[in-house]
Write a structure and sequence with these properties.
Blueprint (H helix, E strand, L loop, with lengths): L11 E7 L2 E8 L2 E9 L7 E11 H12 L6 E16 L3 E17 L4 E12 L7 E14 L2 E12 L4 E11 L2 E5 L2 E4 L4 E12 H5 L6 E5 L1 E11 L3 E12 L5 E4 L13 E6 L4 E6 L3 H8 L5 E10 L10 E9 L8 E7 L3 H6 L9 E5 L1
Antiparallel strand pairs: 1-2, 2-3, 3-4, 4-5, 5-6, 6-7, 7-8, 8-9, 9-10, 10-11, 10-12, 11-13, 13-15, 14-17, 15-16, 16-20, 17-20, 18-19, 20-21, 21-22, 22-23
Length: 371
Amino acid sequence: MKIADLPDLGLAWRATLADGGVALAATRPGADLLVELRPAGDDAGGWRWTILRGSLDLTELWPLAREKLGPAAEGWSASGRIELAGGGTWSDESGPVGEVRLALREGWARSDELDVELNGVEFDAITTELGTGTLPARQVLRVGKISAAGAELEGLRVVFGLDAGQVLEVVGGEVAFLGGVVRLRPFRMPLARPAVDAAADVEALRLDEAARLLPWLIQSAQGRLHGRVELAWNTEKGLRVRDGGLNVVDSEHAVLLLAPSPGLLTGSMEKKFRFFRGRGLRWMGIHNPAYAPLKEIEMGREGLRVESFTVDFWPDGPGVGRTAVIRIAGRPTGGKLVKEVKLDVNFHGPWSEFLAFGLNNELSGFSFRLE
């Protein structure tokens, strides 16, 4: 974005002479600017300029900014305080030369359509390319907390730049999620057609934090998840997980208790084995030795020592329309009658609903398989 492309803020400029120079002041609701111009004292007849005061209220100016940003800002609300500083020279031949610094503080943004909210947004930008609208790849965006589809991410930090073709270049970033860290790999996004395909490395997500998203399935858990996921975002479909998976590490210390779910493991199992016996063909029955321990597990009274806990994602579901599957394999913490329990939880539906699913306790989007 070049200076000439900036939106018309409806500023009323006023010039006054001051100490051998010119003071240019501009005000309007939400904007207060004061720029000082002084002769550069060179043969080119140039000027030295300094931003003495620059304050913008994003709440007031957001409608104008949203119109200029186009599809990337559609449906978003935003507020915050922007401070401008900088200085340099100006001549007819070279135009503006110098450095401009922008700092956003107390930022907030929300999209009701995407169910995403950002709080504590801070943005520090600095550029010397005033005529091209480019930003060197050292700009920093920080977000205190992101709420998305029932999940929360904290401490987002992204380093990025903007090239002459108006392509956003993200150098890297990281955010705290479920007690661990998600690190973004570099990616590019054209502002004219905002869409992202990116990969993220996931480190040490806590199983007990992840269990809060699945309260209908897991009562408590301990352990850590690591892995890699591929993300996609555009203005039409929002954020999606395209591919990847998570796996538990150090499974010797990973234990979970299922939320009490009568029949989850024993629903298709006989409590007694029945058969005919004797000349009178009487029904006889003996207790199924696996029934009682599985009942203890499904009611959350006995835990599972996790041998494997994996989460696999697909872009559109492999054949049967699955968005994600959680695979759990574990050994009961007590007793020896049941050697291992394997449970698959298949989710069918948008990924955003997968994250938020635990909030409404509805099971219609899931199917189970027990071994």
